[in-house]
Amino acid sequence: AQTVTQSQPEMSVQEAETVTLSCTYDTSESDYYLFWYKQPPSRQMILVIRQEAYKQQNATENRFSVNFQKAAKSFSLKISDSQLGDAAMYFCAYRERNTPLVFGKGTRLSVIA
Amino acid sequence: KAGVTQTPRYLIKTRGQQVTLSCSPISGHRSVSWYQQTPGQGLQFLFEYFSETQRNKGNFPGRFSGRQFSNSRSEMNVSTLELGDSALYLCASSPDYYYEQYFGPGTRLTVT
After folding, report:
1. What span, in angstroms and rounded, lies between the C-alpha atoms of B79 and B63?
2. Which residues contact B102 (CB under 8 A, 6 or more apart)?
């Protein structure tokens, strides 16, 4: 079964600084999607960014970008110009065709003013 | 478009009772998935429905069941509630079963 590993249970960043959250996954498939979701204290799970495995170009969404290393099975999230509202649990998730989303355990991000 | 809605938002039940949770997906989305989130186990997949058919099922006992209606709305039912069923139950919808999922606010179930 596919697994997703987030090795950093907690991280902190100063406001306006940059932070990178790590994610690795295990799969033998070549066609799949990767996602980062954010879950703030309200518990509403919010899609931050997605990456199709067949695309070599790293996805970006405003201050959020990913570093997708397919051969290394690594999918890190970079948050630039961190804001207080970025404080949340961040989940890395993997999905291939005909299978459900598989989530990592999450990384709790604190933003220090 | 309106987002995914879940009702009720909070629920308190007694051990042994049963409960039904409801989820209305984003308009046009045909796939609905359910997840259980607990501090100890994290996010665990329950089941996924697409056009009224169960596509995938997680590793949960038969007390957990679900269904999807022709308008894509979905319900999940838990019978004979146990204390360990206390959790946040999240519903997510997507246009198809291979795309990103959009989550609802969840239903917080407490079993006493």
Report:
1. 5
2. A47, B3, B4, B26, B29, B92, B93, B94
* Calpha distance A69→A74 (Å, rounded): 5
Residue A1, pLDDT score = 66
Residues in chain A with CB shorter than 8 Å from the CB of B56 are 98-100
Q: What is the CA radius of gyration of chain A?
A: 13
Cross-chain residue pair A43–B101, CB shorter than 8 Å: no
Q: Give the model's pLDDT for residue B99.
A: 76
Smallest Cβ distance to B98: which of A37, A91, A97? A97
Between CA B39 and CA B45, with CA B22 as vertex, the angle to 5 degrees is 40
Which of A33, A43, A106 minimises the CB distance to B42? A106
Tell me the C-alpha distance between A57 and B18, whole Å: 48
Q: Which residues make Cβ contacts (< 8 Å) with residue B73, sequence separation at least 6?
A: B22, B23, B24, B25, B32
3-state secondary structure of B39: coil
Q: How long, in residues, is chain B?
A: 112
Low-confidence ranges of chain B (pLDDT < 50): none
Angstroms from B112 CA to nearest CA on chain A: 22
